[in-house]
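Appendix B. Chain record.
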Amino acid sequence: MIKEQGLYRNLRIISPSHTPGKSYVDGIERIMASSNNYLGLAGDKRLTEEAVKIMKEYGVGSTGSRLTTGNTTFHEKLEKRIAEFKKDEAALIFSSGYLANIGVMSSLPGEGDVIISDQLNHASIIDGCRLSKAKTSIYRHINMEDLKEKLIHSQHYNRRFIVTDGVFSMDGNIAPLREIKALADIYNAYVIVDDAHATGILGENSRGTGEHFDVSVDVTIGTFSKSIGTEGGFVTGARSLIDYLRNRARSFIFQTALPPSIMASTLKAIDIIEYSPQLRVHMQQLIRIIRNELLDYGFEVRGEHTPIIPVVIGSSEKAMNFSEKLEMNGVFAPAIRPPSVPNGESRIRMTIMATHTEQDIQQICKAFYKVGKQLEVI
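Structure tokens predicted for this chain:
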């Protein structure tokens, strides 16, 4: 049934290339145009050297949860550092961004509360809401009138929590956080933002959606596995919130801690992001070039000026065919199909990295133009 619907998935083997911006896909070098490694830090020698140094001292594993044997000085340092970076009181590290969302959404809102969630929020938010004892209400994607209506009709609940992605992973657009916060203030609601795809990308100092709009929220959730280039998730907010999650979030309490080598390399990455803005500036220049080219060709390009550039193709079969032909032209950018996106909106979810060159961007554009013409997409 899945194969007949064009929704069957398989795994590709990705290996590193010595050429920045490229990877080996099943043994063949391609331009990597689908990675979440937006700033190219996952392969940065400064991070790997830091990780190796700490690994030689501490070993490869953490040996237990943070509350038993897995907590080290590097976990403590990183929590302090990410809180400072996000301009919050305190932080808590989870073993992944998925677990961070599960932990917050399943333990913070409780019985008698309501979670008001954007229609296109990430699966980890959705799963966290399903585990919560609170009721969940869905508002239409970034539709502030619908959010307002949901808030008006939820005043009988004990507490109201608005939850949204900062940057939406499949559409590349940015949540209107200033308007969301204004509505939250009027209707006495808390705001939770998943900043996975915005941390390191948005804001004058790369701090994310809050800095981009100059807005403070109650809870910020994020991940180290996107622009930061390592692994793990985090939550920042008031010290009382972090104390609560440390004692109540099951995906923190019962999860093996990340190894200290990952914590050390993450500390290095945050320093690079904060003090080396040229990586982000170069990436933004490339984003402008490729978006303008694809729009000029006549493609349906969604999103805003983030590294996520969705190019809508249509049916699952056509998107798969488009992706395969792109790969034949040296560009690896897999098709995104339902249930990740709605029926009829299968797409190439292209992403740009700071390690791409202008030559890479031109090759990607030529490949898109050639395949678009072949398949009569443009």
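Further analysis of this model is presented in Appendix C.
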